[in-house]
């Protein structure tokens, strides 16, 4: 954060550690916190580095980058839905929350890459919603 209580969106996603970045993305009610440019830049960066790391012979953790990549694309999809339908405050439109969509995107990407069972994916989604 800068001294005037603002922050750089791209720096918050690319410079912070993975856990803090994931928590930024999972925060509910923050549909104006990150823009398309910073989200797409971070998605391309993390996806390319994750593919490179997974293909190398080096033992490294891919759990956080998989969650991060899924949270990024979930939040991008949710921002598209918010721009189409607007911010919904009723109980039927509350699912269009970028933080919740980031959690669903992280669970879907993680379960798709690691062949996670459906029950564990539901536990993961229910933890963040």
Describe it for me?
This protein has one domain (31-128). It is built from 6 helices and no strands. The protein is globular, with a radius of gyration of 15 Å. The chain has helices spanning 9-14, 18-26, 36-55, 63-85, 98-114, 118-128. With 129 residues, it is mostly helical.
Brief digest:
About 65% of the residues lie in helices and about 0% in strands.
Distance between the termini: 27 Å
Task: Count helical runs.
Answer: 6
Largest sheet: none
> How many domains is the backbone divided into?
1
Strand residue percentage? under 5%
Q: What's the helix-strand series?
A: HHHHHH
Number of strands: 0
The helix-and-strand class reads: mainly alpha
Overall spatial form? globular
**Low-pLDDT ranges:** none
Helix content: 55-70%
Mean pLDDT over the residues = 78
Radius of gyration of CA atoms, rounded to a whole number: 15 Å
Detail the topology: elements first, then pairings.
Elements: H1 9-14, H2 18-26, H3 36-55, H4 63-85, H5 98-114, H6 118-128
Which features would summarize this protein structure in a list?
129 residues, mainly alpha, ClC, CBS domain, membrane, transmembrane helix, chloride transmembrane transporter activity
């Amino acid at each position: 954060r800068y001294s005037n209580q603002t922050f750089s969106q791209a720096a918050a996603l690319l410079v912070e550690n993975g856990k803090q970045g994931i928590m930024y993305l999972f925060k509910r009610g923050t549909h104006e916190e990150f823009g398309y440019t910073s989200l797409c830049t971070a998605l391309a960066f993390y996806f390319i580095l994750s593919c490179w790391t997974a293909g190398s012979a080096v033992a490294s953790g891919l759990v956080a980058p998989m969650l991060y990549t899924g949270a990024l694309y979930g939040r991008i999809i949710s921002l598209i839905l918010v721009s189409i339908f607007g911010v919904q405050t009723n109980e039927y439109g509350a699912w269009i929350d970028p933080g919740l969509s980031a959690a669903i995107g992280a669970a879907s990407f993680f379960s798709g890459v690691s062949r996670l069972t459906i029950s564990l994916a539901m536990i993961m989604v229910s933890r963040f919603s």
